[in-house]
User: What shape does this take?
Amino acid sequence: MRHRLFSPLRFSIRVFRVEKKSLPLHSKLAKLLDMKSVSKAFRALADPTRRQILQELKRGELSAGQIAACFSISGPSISRHLSILKNADLISERREGNHIIYRLEPEQLAHTVGDFLSAVCPTQIAQRQRWKRKESL
Assistant: This one.
């Protein structure tokens, strides 16, 4: 009689129930993490200096010194702005000798802003659905 309690059918049902319950928690977690990254990006974009840094990086990679030369604020202030942009994944950095070279991450910027607009703007939702249909053809 004990072997019936652990039959494959009963075990699979129990596993299914556990998985079914964990899916909404997983999707809530994913949405929460996505919302945090969107919040970081929009906080980074809220400052005019950071938006200007992104404009400068749109033209190509620049060192921290080259970026600082474009502004009349202190080097540590520029460093702080670059750090905020980097934490929002809007820019990336690489070392080249003693210099840190920054580059714009346009795909990340477009993805973050696009996903937000799709979530709140009905015309964007419809447009993305049309794009997905075209891509699947």
About this structure: The two ends are 56 Å apart (CA to CA). The beta strands are 62-63, 91-96, 99-104. Residues 8-45 form the longest helix (38 residues).
